[in-house]
Amino acid sequence: MNDNITESVDVVVVGAGVTGLYAVHKLRGLGYRVRGFERGADVGGVWYWNRYPGARCDVESLDYSYSFDEELQQGWDWSEKYAAQPEIMRYLDHVADRFELRRDYTFDTSVLSAELDEEALRWTVRTDGGEVVSARFCVFAVGCLSSAHRPSIPGADTFAGDTYHTGEWPHAGVDFSGLRVGVIGTGSSGIQSIPLIAEQATELTVFQRSANYSIPAGNSPIDAATLRELKAGYAERRRLARLSGGGSPFMTHPRKTLDVSEAERRDAFEKRWELGGVLYSKTFPDQLVDLAANDEARDFWEEKVRARIGDPAVADLLVPTDHPIGTKRIVTDSDYYETFNQEHVRLVGLRENPIERMDERGVLLADGTHVALDAVVFATGFDAMTGSLDRVAIRGRGGRLLTDDWRAGPRTYLGLGTDGFPNLFNLTGPGSPCVLANVILCAEQHVDWLADCLGHLDEHGYAAIEASGRAVEDWVTECRERAAGTLMMSADSWYLGANIPGKPRVFMPFVGGFGVYGEIIAEVAASGYKGFDLL
Ligand code: N01
């Protein structure tokens, strides 16, 4: 063993979010020696970091929970249809305790590098805690929305008040009472937090670059009788979820938008509206591929939303005109639009009046207006899908850096592996449907596939598995072509890297849907891992 190496294991898992936790549980249960590292002080991943007011899941609680253990899913009682961040953290804490997952993790520790030893086909993983671990397999479960993005605004460092990023929220919470607050950004995080910040702030200014589509969450407590009934139907609920496009037990209307009468169309939109949240973008099967169909959904949305906003000029600013509905992730809100009917809340459209700079006392706009502020909240999103991997120096064959190989966009086979990086897996990331689906079921899908794959290698005496260059090229093309056949390319979304200056404009997720993707990866496994070289 290399002198520097402090430990030798079968698998290193990076990340203790929903994917990493299940990976540790599953692989350890199969007898692999597993070592986990996590940047945060505890488990939870995005839910550990995103503690901003109003943080709430946009997938129903019953679905956004592990399915791998029947006693776990029957034993945990969700209190609300859409769980808020504290309840999800309690759940993940419970999972970590129940399966004793913390004992294999080192927390407050970032993985700095992973380097392939080509002779031994092993990875050397170095951490900022000084550990050097040799592992046969390296599994990244670092999350797609874990690298907070703060835009560079001239003069931001001179601002005298406090600044926050929604994705790095103080654990003790923030009291905005008596303060003039600015929120920059109106994606999910901004739209969820703005109504609650408005309840405390004396003045709230929302700086909006792009208007977004948001739908009322329709959240409600789940009473005991309903919960019993839902749990009794869990098996069927999960079966439907696994077949679905998004990992939730909901199917689109069987017919296309314009093939039904107006009355039937409105009825279908109304039902999805009542259901609440992101599923609205999948009311009809053609909504994200046919602009005329999309326009119907958009018009219904606009009618509903304008009715919630008092001032038509404010409504004009809040209604998006730059992208079809659902081509950025639809936001799920609680009283977002009504917030702008309050006297002390003001909306600034940055397209018309951009931020020129910040100074000690606030924000200066291009038209010369100075907005005096005591605190600024950056709800400006993430360097999504690749940002967290980019922080790790991953060196494969010939010392090649993964970030160099991915300079023109992520290159994967099935989202799982990359040529030149044998035995290295990236879970629930680019090339997979995970950010477009229920990530907990996606995590289970990936980890179960991985566990079978490692079993296959051992059973047949292989040391390693590596995606072939050809399979990677084909998968990249397939992902690109599938996306090009939809309307998803027409929005400047984080799916496309469009929110990060200089990032290549490549649609990173697989748009074919969770169920279809599950069939594809199962078929690859059944074929003896076609597209991979077994070494
Ligand atoms: O980030 P975002 P998010 N100047 O990138 C604006 C998931 N999530 O944290 O649209 C001014 O969506 C930016 O403007 P524009 C969910 O998948 C889920 O809100 O780029 N503004 C945008 O308005 C979600 O999609 C939940 O023009 C700037 C905002 O900041 C994903 O996480 C809750 C700017 C960023 O929006 C990310 O959501 C929260 C600049 N220089 C998050 N740069 C739920 O489960 C950026 N912006 C419900």
TrEMBL record:
Molecular function per GO: flavin adenine dinucleotide binding; N,N-dimethylaniline monooxygenase activity; NADP binding
SUPFAM superfamilies: FAD/NAD(P)-binding domain
Cofactor needs: FAD
Region forming the signal peptide: none
Keywords: FAD, Flavoprotein, Monooxygenase, NADP, Oxidoreductase
Keyword Transmembrane: no
InterPro entries with a match to the protein in the record: FAD-binding_Monooxygenases, FAD/NAD-bd_sf, Flavin_mOase-like
Family that this chain belongs to: Belongs to the FAD-binding monooxygenase family.
Name of the protein: NAD(P)-binding protein
